[in-house]
């Protein structure tokens, strides 16, 4: 392995999608609040090695105190799997196996 190969990050190799915040700083968040598009705050695009958005996600808290992870696929739903890592083990949601709310 050459020196340059060992310095490639998982983002460079395509092993992980790179996170890109919609609002990278507090000034950008304030601007969105002023514009009335508060539902966009906290969204993060995850891009592939071709810089195309694969999924957009954010986490919100409901009135009941539960946290919800929202994911909006920007590619074919059949290419997205969700894995939930928790103390009791791993839960995997495969395309076509989840329920609609």
Describe the structure.
The chain is an alpha+beta fold and 101 residues long. Helices cover 18% and strands 34% of the residues. It has helices at 3-6, 10-13, 26-35; strands spanning 18-21, 44-47, 53-61, 67-73, 82-86, 89-93. The mean pLDDT is 84. It has a 4-stranded antiparallel beta sheet with strand order 1-2-3-4, with no helix packed on it. A two-stranded antiparallel ribbon has the order 5-6.
Give the integer mean of the pLDDT values. 84
Intertermini distance: 48 Å
In oligomeric terms, what are we looking at? single chain
Number of strands: 6
Structural class: alpha+beta
Helix content: 10-25%
Residue stretches low in confidence (pLDDT < 50, at least 5 long) are none
Features of this protein?
single chain, 101 residues, alpha+beta, four-stranded antiparallel sheet, two-stranded antiparallel sheet, 3 helices, 6 strands, globular
């Amino acid at each position: 392995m050459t020196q340059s190969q060992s310095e490639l990050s998982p983002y460079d190799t395509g092993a992980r999608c790179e996170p890109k915040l919609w609002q990278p700083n507090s000034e950008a968040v304030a601007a969105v609040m002023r514009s009335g598009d508060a539902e966009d705050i906290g969204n993060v695009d995850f891009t592939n090695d071709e810089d195309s958005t694969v999924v957009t996600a954010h986490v919100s808290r409901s009135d009941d105190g539960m946290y919800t992870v929202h994911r909006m696929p920007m590619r074919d739903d059949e290419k997205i799997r969700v894995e939930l890592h928790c103390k009791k083990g791993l839960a995997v949601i495969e395309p076509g196996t989840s329920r609609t709310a």
